[in-house]
Amino acid sequence: MKSYHVNLGAGLEGLSLQEHPTPKLGPCDALVRVRAASLNFREIMIMAHGAYPLPVKPDVIALADGAGDVVAVGPAVTRAKVGDRVMAAMFPRWIDGPFDHEYAAQIGGSLDGMLTELAVLDEEALVPIPEHLSFDEAATLPCAAVTAWNALTGGRGLQAGQCVLTLGAGNVSLFALSFAKLFGARVIATTSSAEKAARLAALGADHVIDHHAIPDWPPEVRRLTGGRGVDHIVEVGGPATFERSFRSRAVGGQVAWVGALGAGAQPIDVSQLFLAAASLRGVAVGSRAQFTAMNRAISLHRTRPIIDRIFSFQEAPAAFSYHATGKAFGKVVIRVSEGGAP
Fold first, then answer.
1. What is the pLDDT of residues 62-84, one digit of tens each?
2. Which residues form the domain of 239?
3. What is the domain count for the chain?
4. CATH number for the domain including 83?
5. What stretches of the chain adopt beta strand conformation (E)?
6. What is the pTM of this model?
């Protein structure tokens, strides 16, 4: 079997293709033939920035996101059988409830990832693929989609008729837009160009704000909500946008802080959280229970993720290079092997 390996801070040049013997299974393990994998911003953090908030072991097999079919199981496995189409939860030990340090082991970081022909996974990591999705589509879900689902449902859960603010056209924001519409919510999206604005509107955004044309966009958010502000904010920009997101929230609103894609910071008066009865919640992907709940909604509504480009396994370095440009609208997928699409 072959797999691609990365090291913290080694850059794209550190991506290496290696060959190994077929891995052996423990009693509770499943051997998965990986059909597809996909990239997230965390790969940029690990490889280019050399900074990631969780441990990354040396020479780790890359990528948290992947999907495939089970080809063998250990003698004690009860949650999967040969032939099952599965994805891997990014945090295999986080089954349900709030996140804790004991659940921090993560695929593609402290655990080997999914950019490999064969992956050994603890059965607790396995999540069935919705029947209508191909392996390429399923491979987009474990990180960005579960993060968006957690951002909207994991705290003060989203309700029909509420308003959600998404930032930009990254994958967490695209999934959040899709899920918010499933809940019957209004969505205000910010973006950086007329082209992206048109695409976000076509995906269901009720209003799109070009933040280049309107750099100080919180007053526009309040105008669009009759002065009230938004109930849920999926904050992906971090210090660069947090102050503006904070000014856009409604009384009792919630800011789900997903990550930090931008640089720079503006001070905020945290006492305003108390005065507005608002809440700020850090989001670290999600549990297997949240992954499963998300899949039920995806199956019910026949939702399909947005894929920008698909690369072959041999083209993995080109996929990483393209992903690093930030030009993709939707997920960048690497097809590891053919077969099995519904």
1. 999 999 999 999 999 999 999 99
2. 155-282
3. 2
4. 3.90.180.10
5. 2-6, 16-19, 29-38, 60-61, 65-73, 85-88, 118-122, 126-128, 163-167, 186-191, 207-210, 230-235, 249-257, 279-282, 307-312, 331-335
6. 0.93
